[in-house]
Amino acid sequence: MKRGEQVKRKIIITLSILFSLWMIGLFIFYLMKHDHTRWQVALGGILISLPPLSLLKMKKNPFNIPIIISYYLFLFCSLYLGSISSFYLRYLWWDSTLHFLKGMFVGFVGISLYKHWIPKQSQSNVSVGILFLFVLSLAVSSGVLWEIYEYVGDLTLTHTMQRGGNTDTMEDLLCGLGGGFVAAVYSLFRKKRI
Description:
mainly alpha; 8 helices; 0% strand
């Protein structure tokens, strides 16, 4: 195994374990305080911190270290700061900013997947327009799926995810589109070097 892959493995294992242990601690703390909203968020944090471990089974992990670290940073900002520490309620710009950053993040994930899935010899034959649309559509699709998740969550559990109704949904989608657009434009310049 190459040195870079070993470093990625160590980072994934370390961040997964640390984040899930921290969320387990928060889960127990808020469960004992009977704070049902926060213990549910912490429980979700435990579950969502573990999927990157599945990357360890891959022969070649398509994601670079900044993407892996960004994943956990995003979880920290959305789950802990946003929900548990109530940044979503205190700072009106917090939700929109995270949706913008999520759009960028998913766009960069799309660029990594493109580099992983498309053989090197075929990459020069893929037009920049197709790459642009792939990155942008992946970011937009993730935003749509997230809004469906929020809608279903409000129907079944929390009633707090879409406080602004349709306005919140549209602002979130536009911010995600903006972030995805930034990543897609970056892919145009990056295509020359891919």
